[in-house]
Design brief:
The chain is α/β, with parallel strands linked by helices. The chain has 12 helices and 12 strands.
Length: about 350
Protein backbone atom coordinates (compact mmCIF):
# COMPACT_ATOMS: atom_id res chain seq x y z
CA UNK A 1 0.00 0.00 0.00
CA UNK A 2 1.23 3.49 -0.90
CA UNK A 3 1.77 5.79 2.07
CA UNK A 4 2.14 9.56 2.34
CA UNK A 5 2.14 12.30 4.96
CA UNK A 6 0.04 15.36 4.11
CA UNK A 7 1.00 18.47 6.07
CA UNK A 8 -1.54 21.29 6.42
CA UNK A 9 -2.57 23.60 9.23
CA UNK A 10 -6.07 22.16 8.91
CA UNK A 11 -8.04 19.69 6.82
CA UNK A 12 -11.34 21.53 6.73
CA UNK A 13 -13.55 22.16 3.70
CA UNK A 14 -15.77 24.68 5.45
CA UNK A 15 -13.16 27.02 6.92
CA UNK A 16 -12.76 29.65 4.19
CA UNK A 17 -9.05 28.93 3.56
CA UNK A 18 -8.41 27.55 0.07
CA UNK A 19 -5.32 25.67 1.26
CA UNK A 20 -7.16 23.86 4.05
CA UNK A 21 -10.12 23.02 1.82
CA UNK A 22 -7.78 21.67 -0.88
CA UNK A 23 -5.95 19.60 1.75
CA UNK A 24 -9.21 17.97 2.85
CA UNK A 25 -10.37 17.16 -0.68
CA UNK A 26 -6.93 15.87 -1.71
CA UNK A 27 -6.75 13.62 1.36
CA UNK A 28 -10.19 12.20 0.54
CA UNK A 29 -9.18 11.58 -3.07
CA UNK A 30 -5.92 9.81 -2.16
CA UNK A 31 -7.74 7.59 0.34
CA UNK A 32 -10.21 6.67 -2.40
CA UNK A 33 -7.21 5.46 -4.46
CA UNK A 34 -6.18 3.16 -1.62
CA UNK A 35 -3.38 5.38 -0.29
CA UNK A 36 -2.63 5.26 3.44
CA UNK A 37 -2.78 9.00 4.24
CA UNK A 38 -1.35 10.41 7.44
CA UNK A 39 -2.73 13.89 8.08
CA UNK A 40 -0.45 16.19 10.07
CA UNK A 41 -2.33 19.32 11.11
CA UNK A 42 -2.11 22.06 13.69
CA UNK A 43 -4.18 21.56 16.83
CA UNK A 44 -3.33 24.85 18.52
CA UNK A 45 -6.28 27.17 19.09
CA UNK A 46 -6.57 30.29 16.93
CA UNK A 47 -4.28 28.73 14.33
CA UNK A 48 -6.05 30.66 11.61
CA UNK A 49 -4.94 34.10 12.78
CA UNK A 50 -2.18 33.84 15.39
CA UNK A 51 1.26 34.02 13.74
CA UNK A 52 3.16 33.19 16.94
CA UNK A 53 1.21 29.93 17.27
CA UNK A 54 1.95 29.08 13.64
CA UNK A 55 5.69 29.65 14.09
CA UNK A 56 5.71 27.69 17.36
CA UNK A 57 3.96 24.80 15.66
CA UNK A 58 6.32 24.79 12.67
CA UNK A 59 9.53 25.04 14.71
CA UNK A 60 8.72 22.70 17.60
CA UNK A 61 5.67 20.48 17.06
CA UNK A 62 5.82 19.79 13.31
CA UNK A 63 9.38 18.32 13.28
CA UNK A 64 8.49 15.96 16.14
CA UNK A 65 5.48 14.67 14.20
CA UNK A 66 7.54 14.28 11.02
CA UNK A 67 10.26 12.33 12.85
CA UNK A 68 7.65 10.03 14.39
CA UNK A 69 5.83 9.22 11.16
CA UNK A 70 8.91 9.06 8.91
CA UNK A 71 11.18 7.06 11.21
CA UNK A 72 8.86 5.03 13.42
CA UNK A 73 6.04 4.53 10.89
CA UNK A 74 8.35 4.22 7.89
CA UNK A 75 6.52 6.71 5.64
CA UNK A 76 8.85 7.92 2.87
CA UNK A 77 6.79 10.65 1.19
CA UNK A 78 5.75 14.05 2.58
CA UNK A 79 3.53 16.56 0.77
CA UNK A 80 3.45 20.04 2.29
CA UNK A 81 0.13 21.53 1.17
CA UNK A 82 1.48 25.03 1.86
CA UNK A 83 4.92 26.42 1.09
CA UNK A 84 4.89 28.16 4.48
CA UNK A 85 5.37 24.86 6.34
CA UNK A 86 7.88 23.15 4.04
CA UNK A 87 10.98 24.35 5.90
CA UNK A 88 12.24 20.80 6.53
CA UNK A 89 12.21 19.64 2.90
CA UNK A 90 15.99 19.67 2.44
CA UNK A 91 16.61 17.82 5.69
CA UNK A 92 14.00 15.19 4.87
CA UNK A 93 15.49 14.69 1.40
CA UNK A 94 18.90 14.11 3.01
CA UNK A 95 17.42 11.21 4.97
CA UNK A 96 15.84 9.66 1.90
CA UNK A 97 12.32 11.07 2.32
CA UNK A 98 10.67 12.32 -0.90
CA UNK A 99 9.22 15.79 -0.39
CA UNK A 100 6.60 17.70 -2.36
CA UNK A 101 5.27 21.21 -1.83
CA UNK A 102 2.50 23.41 -3.24
CA UNK A 103 3.32 27.08 -3.90
CA UNK A 104 0.30 29.38 -4.16
CA UNK A 105 2.14 32.66 -4.67
CA UNK A 106 5.08 34.76 -3.46
CA UNK A 107 2.89 37.62 -2.24
CA UNK A 108 4.49 37.65 1.23
CA UNK A 109 7.67 38.93 -0.41
CA UNK A 110 5.82 42.22 -0.93
CA UNK A 111 6.21 42.80 2.82
CA UNK A 112 9.09 44.75 4.32
CA UNK A 113 11.63 44.28 7.07
CA UNK A 114 11.60 41.19 9.29
CA UNK A 115 8.46 39.73 7.72
CA UNK A 116 9.99 39.83 4.24
CA UNK A 117 13.25 38.34 5.57
CA UNK A 118 11.32 35.52 7.25
CA UNK A 119 9.33 34.51 4.17
CA UNK A 120 12.31 34.89 1.83
CA UNK A 121 14.08 32.21 3.82
CA UNK A 122 10.98 30.05 4.37
CA UNK A 123 10.43 29.93 0.61
CA UNK A 124 14.11 29.19 0.00
CA UNK A 125 13.89 26.17 2.32
CA UNK A 126 10.60 25.03 0.77
CA UNK A 127 12.13 25.13 -2.71
CA UNK A 128 14.48 22.30 -1.68
CA UNK A 129 11.55 19.92 -2.13
CA UNK A 130 11.94 17.22 -4.76
CA UNK A 131 8.85 18.42 -6.67
CA UNK A 132 7.35 21.90 -6.51
CA UNK A 133 3.72 22.16 -7.52
CA UNK A 134 2.75 25.68 -8.63
CA UNK A 135 -0.86 26.78 -8.65
CA UNK A 136 -0.38 28.77 -11.87
CA UNK A 137 2.02 29.81 -14.61
CA UNK A 138 2.39 33.16 -12.82
CA UNK A 139 3.63 31.53 -9.61
CA UNK A 140 6.04 29.37 -11.59
CA UNK A 141 7.47 32.39 -13.41
CA UNK A 142 7.78 34.38 -10.17
CA UNK A 143 9.73 31.53 -8.56
CA UNK A 144 12.07 31.34 -11.56
CA UNK A 145 12.68 35.09 -11.48
CA UNK A 146 13.21 35.28 -7.70
CA UNK A 147 15.23 32.16 -6.90
CA UNK A 148 18.00 30.19 -8.58
CA UNK A 149 16.37 26.79 -8.94
CA UNK A 150 16.30 23.71 -11.12
CA UNK A 151 13.25 24.46 -13.25
CA UNK A 152 12.73 20.75 -13.94
CA UNK A 153 11.33 20.49 -10.40
CA UNK A 154 8.56 23.01 -11.15
CA UNK A 155 5.17 21.76 -12.26
CA UNK A 156 1.92 23.71 -12.72
CA UNK A 157 -1.11 21.92 -11.27
CA UNK A 158 -3.91 24.27 -10.17
CA UNK A 159 -5.38 23.22 -6.79
CA UNK A 160 -8.93 22.85 -8.09
CA UNK A 161 -11.11 20.96 -5.62
CA UNK A 162 -14.66 21.71 -6.73
CA UNK A 163 -16.74 20.82 -9.75
CA UNK A 164 -19.64 23.19 -10.33
CA UNK A 165 -22.36 23.26 -12.97
CA UNK A 166 -24.57 26.05 -14.27
CA UNK A 167 -28.18 26.16 -13.12
CA UNK A 168 -31.05 27.79 -14.91
CA UNK A 169 -31.42 31.27 -13.45
CA UNK A 170 -34.78 32.95 -13.34
CA UNK A 171 -34.36 36.33 -14.99
CA UNK A 172 -34.96 38.99 -12.38
CA UNK A 173 -35.58 42.69 -12.52
CA UNK A 174 -32.00 43.47 -11.56
CA UNK A 175 -28.58 42.51 -12.90
CA UNK A 176 -26.70 40.80 -10.06
CA UNK A 177 -23.01 41.69 -9.82
CA UNK A 178 -21.53 39.21 -7.34
CA UNK A 179 -18.31 38.78 -5.40
CA UNK A 180 -17.04 35.77 -3.41
CA UNK A 181 -13.78 35.82 -1.46
CA UNK A 182 -12.02 37.41 1.48
CA UNK A 183 -12.86 41.00 2.38
CA UNK A 184 -10.33 43.81 2.37
CA UNK A 185 -6.57 43.80 1.82
CA UNK A 186 -5.37 42.94 -1.66
CA UNK A 187 -8.88 41.78 -2.59
CA UNK A 188 -9.80 45.50 -2.73
CA UNK A 189 -13.45 44.87 -1.91
CA UNK A 190 -13.73 48.55 -0.94
CA UNK A 191 -13.88 49.18 -4.70
CA UNK A 192 -17.27 47.48 -4.70
CA UNK A 193 -18.55 50.43 -2.66
CA UNK A 194 -17.12 52.71 -5.37
CA UNK A 195 -19.04 50.65 -7.92
CA UNK A 196 -22.22 51.10 -5.88
CA UNK A 197 -21.60 54.84 -5.78
CA UNK A 198 -21.20 54.87 -9.56
CA UNK A 199 -24.51 53.03 -9.92
CA UNK A 200 -26.19 55.60 -7.66
CA UNK A 201 -24.78 58.64 -9.46
CA UNK A 202 -25.66 57.26 -12.89
CA UNK A 203 -29.16 56.15 -11.82
CA UNK A 204 -28.47 52.52 -12.77
CA UNK A 205 -31.28 51.20 -10.59
CA UNK A 206 -31.50 47.85 -12.37
CA UNK A 207 -28.22 46.65 -10.80
CA UNK A 208 -27.48 45.10 -7.44
CA UNK A 209 -24.11 44.16 -5.92
CA UNK A 210 -23.97 41.16 -3.57
CA UNK A 211 -20.80 40.45 -1.60
CA UNK A 212 -20.02 37.16 0.11
CA UNK A 213 -16.90 36.48 2.16
CA UNK A 214 -15.05 36.39 5.46
CA UNK A 215 -13.63 39.54 6.95
CA UNK A 216 -14.65 42.87 8.42
CA UNK A 217 -17.83 44.06 6.73
CA UNK A 218 -17.52 47.78 6.00
CA UNK A 219 -20.15 50.33 6.94
CA UNK A 220 -22.39 50.96 3.96
CA UNK A 221 -23.70 54.53 3.55
CA UNK A 222 -27.48 54.79 3.78
CA UNK A 223 -27.79 56.01 0.20
CA UNK A 224 -26.08 52.84 -1.09
CA UNK A 225 -27.90 50.20 0.95
CA UNK A 226 -30.35 49.42 -1.84
CA UNK A 227 -27.48 48.88 -4.27
CA UNK A 228 -25.01 46.75 -2.32
CA UNK A 229 -25.39 44.06 0.32
CA UNK A 230 -22.72 42.21 2.34
CA UNK A 231 -23.81 38.71 3.39
CA UNK A 232 -20.76 37.20 5.11
CA UNK A 233 -19.22 33.75 4.61
CA UNK A 234 -20.78 31.20 2.23
CA UNK A 235 -20.81 27.64 3.57
CA UNK A 236 -19.49 24.96 1.23
CA UNK A 237 -22.91 23.40 0.52
CA UNK A 238 -24.34 26.74 -0.67
CA UNK A 239 -21.40 27.86 -2.81
CA UNK A 240 -22.55 26.52 -6.18
CA UNK A 241 -26.03 27.96 -5.63
CA UNK A 242 -24.51 31.33 -4.74
CA UNK A 243 -22.40 31.52 -7.91
CA UNK A 244 -25.46 30.59 -9.94
CA UNK A 245 -27.44 33.46 -8.38
CA UNK A 246 -25.06 35.96 -10.04
CA UNK A 247 -25.24 37.36 -13.54
CA UNK A 248 -21.57 38.38 -13.41
CA UNK A 249 -18.64 37.94 -11.04
CA UNK A 250 -16.74 41.10 -10.14
CA UNK A 251 -13.29 40.31 -8.76
CA UNK A 252 -11.27 43.53 -8.15
CA UNK A 253 -8.22 41.90 -6.49
CA UNK A 254 -4.84 43.59 -6.97
CA UNK A 255 -2.92 40.30 -7.11
CA UNK A 256 -3.70 36.60 -7.19
CA UNK A 257 -1.48 33.55 -7.35
CA UNK A 258 -4.38 31.85 -9.12
CA UNK A 259 -7.83 33.41 -8.62
CA UNK A 260 -10.05 30.41 -7.87
CA UNK A 261 -13.40 32.28 -7.66
CA UNK A 262 -12.97 33.39 -11.27
CA UNK A 263 -12.69 29.81 -12.54
CA UNK A 264 -15.50 28.59 -10.27
CA UNK A 265 -17.80 31.35 -11.52
CA UNK A 266 -16.94 30.37 -15.09
CA UNK A 267 -17.85 26.76 -14.29
CA UNK A 268 -21.32 28.13 -13.61
CA UNK A 269 -21.30 30.08 -16.88
CA UNK A 270 -20.83 33.49 -15.28
CA UNK A 271 -18.80 36.13 -17.18
CA UNK A 272 -16.15 37.74 -14.96
CA UNK A 273 -14.78 41.25 -14.56
CA UNK A 274 -11.25 41.94 -13.35
CA UNK A 275 -9.26 45.18 -13.43
CA UNK A 276 -6.42 46.14 -15.72
CA UNK A 277 -3.99 46.79 -12.86
CA UNK A 278 -4.75 43.44 -11.20
CA UNK A 279 -2.03 40.79 -11.46
CA UNK A 280 -3.53 37.44 -12.51
CA UNK A 281 -2.17 34.32 -14.26
CA UNK A 282 -2.70 34.43 -18.00
CA UNK A 283 -4.76 31.22 -17.88
CA UNK A 284 -7.24 32.78 -15.44
CA UNK A 285 -7.67 36.19 -17.04
CA UNK A 286 -7.87 34.81 -20.59
CA UNK A 287 -11.68 34.73 -20.70
CA UNK A 288 -12.30 37.70 -18.37
CA UNK A 289 -13.55 41.15 -19.24
CA UNK A 290 -10.62 43.38 -18.25
CA UNK A 291 -11.49 47.02 -17.53
CA UNK A 292 -9.43 50.03 -16.54
CA UNK A 293 -11.62 50.94 -13.59
CA UNK A 294 -14.52 49.37 -11.78
CA UNK A 295 -16.94 52.16 -12.70
CA UNK A 296 -16.91 50.99 -16.33
CA UNK A 297 -18.71 47.75 -15.50
CA UNK A 298 -22.35 48.97 -15.75
CA UNK A 299 -21.86 50.46 -19.22
CA UNK A 300 -20.09 47.31 -20.40
CA UNK A 301 -22.97 45.16 -19.11
CA UNK A 302 -25.57 47.37 -20.79
CA UNK A 303 -23.65 47.27 -24.09
CA UNK A 304 -24.07 43.50 -24.32
CA UNK A 305 -27.10 42.09 -26.09
CA UNK A 306 -28.80 39.02 -24.66
CA UNK A 307 -27.26 36.92 -27.45
CA UNK A 308 -23.79 38.27 -26.65
CA UNK A 309 -24.24 37.52 -22.96
CA UNK A 310 -25.35 33.94 -23.66
CA UNK A 311 -22.44 33.47 -26.05
CA UNK A 312 -19.96 34.67 -23.42
CA UNK A 313 -21.62 32.47 -20.82
CA UNK A 314 -21.14 29.39 -23.02
CA UNK A 315 -17.58 30.44 -23.80
CA UNK A 316 -16.47 30.76 -20.17
CA UNK A 317 -18.26 27.54 -19.24
CA UNK A 318 -16.42 25.63 -21.97
CA UNK A 319 -13.12 27.22 -20.99
CA UNK A 320 -13.56 26.25 -17.34
CA UNK A 321 -13.92 22.61 -18.37
CA UNK A 322 -10.15 22.67 -18.85
CA UNK A 323 -9.84 22.94 -15.05
CA UNK A 324 -11.30 19.54 -14.25
CA UNK A 325 -10.95 18.59 -10.58
CA UNK A 326 -10.69 14.84 -11.16
CA UNK A 327 -8.09 15.12 -13.93
CA UNK A 328 -5.95 17.45 -11.82
CA UNK A 329 -6.15 15.13 -8.81
CA UNK A 330 -5.21 12.20 -11.09
CA UNK A 331 -2.21 14.15 -12.36
CA UNK A 332 -1.13 14.93 -8.80
CA UNK A 333 -1.46 11.26 -7.83
CA UNK A 334 0.72 10.16 -10.75
CA UNK A 335 3.46 12.63 -9.77
CA UNK A 336 3.35 11.62 -6.11
CA UNK A 337 3.54 7.92 -6.83
CA UNK A 338 5.20 7.87 -10.30
CA UNK A 339 2.42 5.86 -11.89
Amino acid sequence: MEKIILVSRKFDRDCGSAEWIYADYLSEYLKSKGVDVCEVSQKIKQSSNNNSHKILNDLLILPIKLIYFCIFKGIKKVYFISENQAIYSGLLNFFGIETFVMFYDLIHLNNRGLRKFYFTNVYMLALRSKVIFCDSSLTLENIKKTYCIDTKKLLVIPPIYRKFNPAKKVKGEKVILGYIGSLGGRKRTELLLDLAEELRKSNFENFKIVVWGKGIIPKVPNNLKKLIKFYGYVREEYLERTYNSFDYLVFPSSEEGFGLPVIEAMMCGKPCFILEDGIFPKEVKKECYILKNIGQIPKKVLSLSNAEYLSKSRSVRNYAKGFDMEKLFDKTYKVLFKN
